Amino acid sequence: MQVFTDIAELRKWRSGLPIHSSIGLVPTMGALHQGHASLIRSSVEQNDLTVVSIFVNPTQFGPNEDFDAYPRTLDDDVAIVREMGADVVFAPKMQDIYPKPPAQILFSIRDLDKKLCGASRPGHMNGVVQIVSILFHLVQPSHAYFGLKDYQQCKIIETMVKELHFPLQIVPCPIVREPDGLAMSSRNVYLSPAERLSALSLIQCLQEVKSQLGSFQSTAEILSFVHKYLEKFPDVKLDYFEVLHGEDLTEIQNLPDATDPHAFIAAFLGKTRLIDNLAL
Ligand code: AMP
């Protein structure tokens, strides 16, 4: 396995590959866990070659978010990627990706960005689309792997690929969870033991809504149920809970007739913001 920290090295490697090779790209911010590993495993199984990128992308963090504190564990990450049989780790330097910040070219995303994390983290999805499109241009993958834990991100990237005619296929991958149900996240390391326990309320709340779905007449009823449910967890501060059409993240007008209701939650445990989602 090779580790490239220079764009030039990556480009040289890429230009020497046979034209019909299938190349899987797994974009990550490092601090790899089993969720990332499942994406890498799928890519290794499905492609001739796999590139895992590791880059803590500053443009997707807000001014008061955890960019500085974000866990950086490159040596451990490289060992994991090597063990999984990928071919390249691409860990570019910040000044190579963004030589003259702030970038002049920004993306503008319509309705897909006006809800969920797009609404509560202004500029976040622009940063995601920015770095992902840079990585697509540099690596030129045939397939790119994204986790459905970041469901809205996945939908926005799928839409970008379609609308901007990127010649590659997005492969959405299921959420990997801890044995007790908590969605794996690089941010889980921030949680104190008490917060770790309370963090279970996210998936429990989603599952509770799912199991009682037939008793709700509207998404507003679900929302008031969720607020009541979370009163049992005073250290959980709800950022949002929404039920939308899973296909295109549009509002549900008539809940009993909705074919693909999908629930999304984001909440703060102390300073740590966690997200999760579940098809209902
Ligand atoms: P991140 O390093 O957090 O930017 O995540 C990199 C990729 O891994 C994204 O496509 C995430 O959606 C995906 N990912 C993160 N956590 C999980 C998880 N628990 N299950 C599945 N995919 C995940």
Keywords:
single chain; 280 residues; six-stranded parallel β-sheet; 9 strands; 20% strand; binds adenosine monophosphate
Structure description:
The protein is an alpha/beta fold and 280 residues long. The mean pLDDT is 97. The strands form two sheets. A six-stranded parallel β-sheet has the order 1-4-3-2-5-6, with helices on both faces. Strands 7-8-9 form a three-stranded antiparallel β-sheet. The protein has helices spanning 7-15, 34-46, 74-83, 94-97, 116-120, 124-139, 151-163, 193-211, 219-230, and strands spanning 2-4, 23-28, 49-54, 88-90, 143-147, 169-173, 236-245, 261-269, 272-279. It is built from nine helices and nine strands. Adenosine monophosphate is lined by residues 28-29, 35-36, 38-39, 146-147, 149-150, 173, 175-176, 183-186. Residues 28-29, 35-36, 38-39, 146-147, 149-150, 173, 175-176, 183-186 line the site of adenosine monophosphate.
